[in-house]
Amino acid sequence: MSLRIYGNRQLKTLAGQETRPTLAMVRSALFNIWQGTIADCRWLDLCAGSGAIGAEALCRGAAVVVGIEQSTRAGAIIRQNWQQVANDTQTFQVLRGDVRQRIKSLEGQQFDRIYFDPPYHSDLYEPVIESIAHLQLLAPNGELAVEHSPYRFSVLTPSTLEICRQKVYGNTALTFYQTIS
Question: Where does the secretion signal sit in this chain (predicted)?
Fold first, then answer.
């Protein structure tokens, strides 16, 4: 399957159902919401899948993009995709492994934008959102966007995060968090 992102760039994806790329409509909505905040930001892509979200962030000028993906095959494709779109002033890193474990290696870092898109029926939402809050990975003026099913998602609000907006796009929803001032 091929996938196109910002600037009509084509990305590679894995064949089959191993990853579920975020719909173009949802990607477009996300980047419209975060318009004007991507250039020079630090971006974290959790459960990166095809890497389309991180690639789009690079195309739009993110300074640093870090992705976590469990699949070795997907991780290799993400690296290829990001290498294809990154320029000489941008850095990126793909970490392979279970997001619940790998996220701990980011302690001490902060990100302006975090995108978290696990399999909708997984048990990853609560532990990962709690880890983001506990490890203080979200920068003070940053935002976390969580992609989920609008039909099966309990709103999670760790004590240091608050929901700032929610959007629904058909069978996909985005819940946005920010740090409590």
Answer: none
